Amino acid sequence: MTDQAYNFAYLDEQTKRMIRRALLKALAIPGYQVPFASREMPMPYGWGTGGVQVTAACLTPDDRLKVIDQGADDTTNAVSIRRFFQRTAGVATTERTTDATVIQTRHRIPEQPLAEGQILVYQVPIPEPLRFLEPRETETRKMHELEEYGLMHVKLYEDIARHGEIATAYAYPVRVEGRYVMDPSPIPKFDNPKLAGNPAIQLFGAGREARIYALPPYSDVVSLDFEDHPFTASKADHACDLCGSGSSYLDEVITDDRGTRMFVCSDTDFCAARQAQGHCGRLSPQGDAP
Amino acid sequence: MIEIQNLTKSFTLHNQGGVAIPVMAGAHLRVAPGECVGLVGRSGAGKSTLMRMVYGNYLAGGGSIRIGGVDVVTAEPRQILALRRAVLGHVSQFLRVVPRVPTLEVVAEPLLRLGIAPQAARARAADLLARLNIPERLWRLSPTTFSGGEQQRVNIARGFAHDYPALLLDEPTASLDAQNREVVLCLIEEAKARGAAILGIFHDESARDRVCDRLVDVTGFTPGLAA
Amino acid sequence: MTLMQNAITAAPLLSVQGLTKRYGPRIGCADVGFDLYPGEVLGIVGESGSGKSTLLSCLAGHQRPDQGRILFDGADVLAFSEAERRRLLRGDWAYVHQNPRDGLRMGVSAGGNVGERLMAVGARNYAAIRDSATDWLGRVEIAADRIDDRPSAFSGGMQQRLQIARNLVTGPRLVFMDEPTGGLDVSVQARLLDLLRGLVRDLGLSVVIVTHDLAVVRLLADRLMVMKSGRVVETGLTDQVLDDPQHAYTQLLVSSVLQV
């Protein structure tokens, strides 16, 4: 049940209207950062205030919400945002990617391919991909306007010069529909290929910076690279120690003071589903192994 | 090749009460291809002033200076630059170069500016430097540190690097020893032989007698000095 | 004679007419006009406040003049859209700042600084970009093994040479220079002047160079424009203006400096 002290999904209807307008504009101009009147939310900046506002503007009472943080449904950030919407919107929640209609995410795209009708909402700390090389906002806007994106490649050039390869491992810049260069939020570059041609609607919200941008379904999204240093979606060269998946993005976990490590799927739902299906990895409890 | 008619010049010193000093009036002379004309007249009579006007370094007050189809008096700066590049050479008394540039490059530069291949330009420069007895070990050094005589020879090599159809020579043999003086006089004779029109100032009388076909006394062009 | 013919029949690369910039009631520069031909170096001299810097910033598109026309290759630059103007600034035009910090990205390596203009015009092959950068560092006499160092680790003279390489890598036709040797030691200045002269000659660059240093223009400029109180008071061949100045102000300017 909705907590009677709040309007449905916390934000008042005028605010939602304003955000929805920004969302529509963002969908109409894929990759373009639309300014919006970001509201104070009952959580600190950096905890997903942008994503929460976008989610609030999208939710209907029939939606089923999933919230993940670095792929996990059970971390503090994910749990509190999920609880926030349970309380203020009364919507159903789920941990299963396939069951969710709206997924708010911090820094991952679920392993399970998304489908038409689903909405993926990203939390974005810094929406401006040119920021680190050109601190002047007036100048970066001009650069977007005029498609002056040479600077983005300077960043990649510096990577190769310094590390012998493009060392940018997350928030890897992409070009959308051959037009705007976009920061995909700090997802690992392993997830970049999933941005492209995705049947789901992808919405990006930056609360502190008051910017919204979006990828409509099936958008053309290309990761920037050089001809002789092509983009590669890398991951740790291991299989999941719990479900044995060799294709999912892995977290490295140090398990004791001697530096013993294990690799596990960062997508907890994906990992749990595989284990339930009987897949197992190097450290799966032996008794459960089929 | 060089034809001067009714040339006038005065200096106006704006910062000294605006006084105007006429220094030349009614100057006229012509130099044919293959001819060397020497300017004479006592010090201050305007020999250098006339030479500088011919080179476009001083602005003429009136009259004309025609060289290879260009009137220096009325020409645009870029026409004069083109003239200096291809047609009109000048050996001044002083070498003015960018510090640090090697001697060989200094001498080859007029050729490089004409678009001649660096290798050919440097070969020509080396040839001239060798003829003028500049030791090869100095070629990689800047001439700014050289002695007066060495600098003068570098200057001459630079002035003769390109076969200019017209040449201005200001005391080319001053401060040279007998051996190098002979080389310079030979260079002048060779230039004449290939058809260059030469206008020069020579204080060295025997040199003047040897290379000049005619002498022109500029005193006749100097207001107040004309007899 | 063909060279002469070429020099005389070619159309001006840059043609400026009646350029005027006011700052309220004050005049920045007034009614300035000149033609600059391919391969020509024009020096603009005058003391501080003479309007030479205002003129340069109007020419280079950093400020918009109140009146006048600027034609580049026959095209009216002031009628350009912002996009066209900026394309010009990273392609056919280059601007060398007095302070290399204004013209370099101090947080980006020397190679990245030189490569930026290439990447801006679409270069996407890392090895080719790096080869170009190495080549250009060599041309401005910076050792190839400094390619991954940041400009902050360079001396002032090296920074200035790096700025020049960064500007010239895309083969611009017109270069604006604002006191490029200012703030450098005399010996470093000489080296830079020599370098600039060679580049201008070998690349056939047209240059507009603003400076108060008459020795610099003597060595670099073909022609001079002398400015005072925002107006051009004298123009001509560099050596003619310096050796036989006609205007009272130029005479004062020339006689005020030590022998150049």
UniProtKB/TrEMBL annotation, chain A:
Its EC number is 4.7.1.1. One of its GO terms (molecular function) is 4 iron, 4 sulfur cluster binding. It catalyses: alpha-D-ribose 1-methylphosphonate 5-phosphate + AH2 + S-adenosyl-L-methionine = alpha-D-ribose 1,2-cyclic phosphate 5-phosphate + methane + 5'-deoxyadenosine + L-methionine + A + H(+). One of its GO terms (biological process) is organic phosphonate catabolic process. InterPro entries: PhnJ. Keywords: 4Fe-4S, Iron, Iron-sulfur, Lyase, Metal-binding, S-adenosyl-L-methionine. It is an enzyme of class 4 (lyase). Catalyzes the breakage of the C-P bond in alpha-D-ribose 1-methylphosphonate 5-phosphate (PRPn) forming alpha-D-ribose. Belongs to the PhnJ family. This is Alpha-D-ribose 1-methylphosphonate 5-phosphate C-P lyase. It comes from Paracoccus versutus.
TrEMBL record, chain B:
The keyword Ligase does not apply. One of its GO terms (cellular component) is plasma membrane. Keywords: ATP-binding, Nucleotide-binding. Residues 2-226 form the ABC transporter domain. It comes from the Bacteria. SMART domains: AAA. One of its GO terms (molecular function) is ATP binding. This is Alpha-D-ribose 1-methylphosphonate 5-triphosphate synthase subunit PhnL. It comes from Paracoccus versutus.
UniProtKB/TrEMBL annotation, chain C:
Pfam families: ABC_tran (PF00005). It comes from the Bacteria. PROSITE patterns: ABC_TRANSPORTER_1, ABC_TRANSPORTER_2. GO terms for molecular function: ATP binding; ATP hydrolysis activity. The keyword ATP-binding applies. CDD domains: ABC_NikE_OppD_transporters (cd03257). Residues 14-254 form the ABC transporter domain. Gene3D superfamilies: P-loop containing nucleotide triphosphate hydrolases (3.40.50.300). One of its GO terms (biological process) is organic phosphonate catabolic process. Keywords: ATP-binding, Nucleotide-binding. SUPFAM superfamilies: P-loop containing nucleoside triphosphate hydrolases. The keyword ATP-binding applies. NCBIfam families: CP_lyasePhnK (TIGR02323). This is Phosphonate transport system ATP-binding protein. It comes from Paracoccus versutus.
